Amino acid sequence: MSSKYSNDVEYDYLFKILIIGDSGVGKTAILQRFTHNYFSNEYLATIGVDFQLRTINVDTKRCKLQVWDTAGQDRFKCVVSTFYRGAHGVIICFDITDIQSFHHVDNWLEEIKKYCINQTPVYLVGTKSDLQSKRVVSYSTIKTYSDSKNLSYIETSSKTNENIENCFIDFARTLVTHNDYMEINQKTKQIEQPKIDIRDKTNPVTSGRCSGENKCTI
């Protein structure tokens, strides 16, 4: 569950969000554009993990997002897997100009199933939407897939800043709704727990006999 605070602090919710996906799909570019409004055509591959913070308004709530950028190479998977713990939501990125990165989404979903708690919200994000001329994964194909997996989907471009803000605001809104639902569900379960009737006196043994002072049979 997320941390929820009263109105006298700087935020109402604190969410840990992981960005995962194949190496080179643009995970770092999304993080840098969202947190610093910065874009570069040249990024070094992330080694292990990195994270940035940003607080945003979602409807009437202030949400502080701790966004983790994870390495996509197989050699870092053992290291990255430990950072799934405690994640409130996961963003899976793939490159719309790279068919393999789309095919590998299933593998990333398996990683989430393995390391995250059940019902962790997941958002599917297609990157590099500015490169429509190089597109190899059609929108209809992606939509059919995302619907079959019950995933929300959005296409983004870190270069043009298309849908970057919308991506995180939409996902944070989902996390708020999910968090509130889980809290209500937990409280309901606590209320519905059966009460154990502890009696002041136990029922006496009504059968059995004793012969002499020390020998009894029941």
UniProtKB/TrEMBL annotation:
Its main location: membrane. It comes from the Eukaryota. One of its GO terms (molecular function) is GTPase activity. It is found in: Endomembrane system. Pfam families: Ras. Keywords: GTP-binding, Membrane, Nucleotide-binding. GO terms for cellular component: endomembrane system. InterPro entries: P-loop_NTPase (IPR027417), Rab (IPR050227), Small_GTP-bd (IPR005225), Small_GTPase (IPR001806). NCBIfam families: small_GTP. This is Uncharacterized protein. It comes from Rotaria sordida. The lineage of its organism: Eukaryota, Metazoa, Spiralia, Gnathifera, Rotifera.
